[in-house]
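Researcher: Hi, I'm a grad student and pretty new to this. My advisor asked me to get structures for two proteins we've been looking at. I'm not sure of the right format, so I'll just paste the first sequence and hope you can take it from there.
Model: That works fine. Here's the first sequence with its structure tokens right after it:
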Amino acid sequence: AVVAAVLAATPALAFVNTHYAGLVEAGRNFYGSLRIVDQGPLRKMLHGLVVHGSEFRSGPLAGEPTAYYGPLSGAGMTLSRPGPPRRVGLIGLGAGTLAWYGRDGDSFRFYELNPLVIEVAQRDFGYLRRSKARIEIVEGDARLRLAAEPAHSFDVLVVDAFSGDAIPVHLLTREAMAIYLERLRPGGTIALHISNQYLNLEPVVRALAADAHCSSVRIASQPDAGRAQLGAVWMIVRADGTADPVRLPVWTDDWNSVLPVLK
């Protein structure tokens, strides 16, 4: 019995040691657990086991965008386009990595549900305070907060809320897409981060885009371990009057199902 107990406990202890290796701090609230972990010069924000952002705190890569947000990611390519100052709305704050793309004259308005994420991003990561853009953070449900904004408020909307185990479906429905499009200026762009371990959300986004007479393009970037960049999949949606054929029923507030998109 003693040997069996030791054998049963050993993997659990190994998991605990790995889970908390390099721990800087940890917190928990209604939305789950949040850990800040240092791995050499790289600091990570983890919600459960999901990386929600990271940052090199020293060395030649200090402050560079990492995780799902490198220059070759869908969001990186979208926000790197040259042009006049723009107003960008971003659903999901994470470590604030996308603020790196802010330029002089830009306004980046983040919507974040979890107050603990806001606290940690401002205190333990440097992206927000170093950004050249004017940074605003709005706490609360992003769809409700965005719906309260004036029409045609943004040049770009970034929706980064689907990498976790339980996705906020209300941000991927016909009604949500209508809100996004109403808040975009003519010629605007929506970038949706759909990297997910369990769900293939590409057909969901394509169906929503087609239903709204928008084009949709998939951009996949490869991992780069040396730069702490993770493989990422983004969908870029534009209201240009073109649309792909719909192959999946459109999700709505009244009907949606993840079963057809399980990996």
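Researcher: Oh nice, that was easy. Here's the second one.
Model: And its structure:
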Amino acid sequence: MKNQKIVFTAPGRAELRDCEVRLPSDNEVLVRTEYTVVSAGTERANLINLPNVPQTYPKTLGYCGIGYVEKVGGEVSGFKPGDRVLVYHGIHAAYNTISANQLTKVEDDRIDSREAAFVILASMSLGGVRKLEVELGESAMVFGLGILGVFAAQLLALSGANPVIAVDYDANRRNKALEMGADYALPPDVELVEQVKRLTGGRGVNATIEVTGSSEALVQALDCAAWMGRIALLGCTRVSDCPVDYYNQVHRPGVKLIGAHNFVRPKVESYPHHWTHQDDCRALLSLLGAGKFKVLPIISEIHAPIDAPEVYTRLAYGKDFPLGVMFGWD
């Protein structure tokens, strides 16, 4: 059986290549892909060889998708051919052969597959929001309004944060954050700290998601933090080029810096503020089905896989890469 996959073959270069489908082993499932989602931050880092990513080519990426089960291995239970499933840490390919424990079933027929395809990315935002332990009425802020940041702003609003402040240089992304649930959207200019303090009654922000991956943004987030505030580091800061005054910005005000990498999760059983990947995905699917969580407004482009070279050239070298870029494999 023939397959196709997107491969990063050199810095800034992607190709669509033919390959063979690998049949599932005992604990694996073969999934026919419907959609995959471009995770701009991680994929760009791998595409242009930023620090803290594998430095050799070829590379295959694409850990967020949805499709239909084609075959199951002999020891797999809970899945059958025809099931619609989320695929976690698969690749951009027409078929993925993957461990059954990396799948989450999508059982609600009301849910559009285009929206469901983003649930894995949204679960990463949700994991960061949970670690902040937001209480009803606390102020919250999101630095960086890529996909993870826009989802985080929406989830903070759903968690009862008030106000929710969104921060980004891009005016279009600020407007999108307002559409998705933020109360205020500000550029990270020299007036930011003063404006944030005004919006929070002089106290600063209780709970912040930092998802730019910029050390300069982290310094601004610390300046905006309330006494004993919390900052979840959801972004991957690959270059540290702006020093932190740890005494005055962290130690003395009692600010907590919380590592929120998606791999730092319980693997088997959820507990308060730390849910498994599958449980967070199921929670978001439930909210999607109930109409309480929105994805469609951020979907910008759906491409055929043959467009991959052009899409990834824009990601590597262009400016203002859009939110919500997908590949449609059907």
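Researcher: Is there anything I should tell my advisor about the second?
Model: You could mention this: Residues 119-132 form the longest helix (14 residues).
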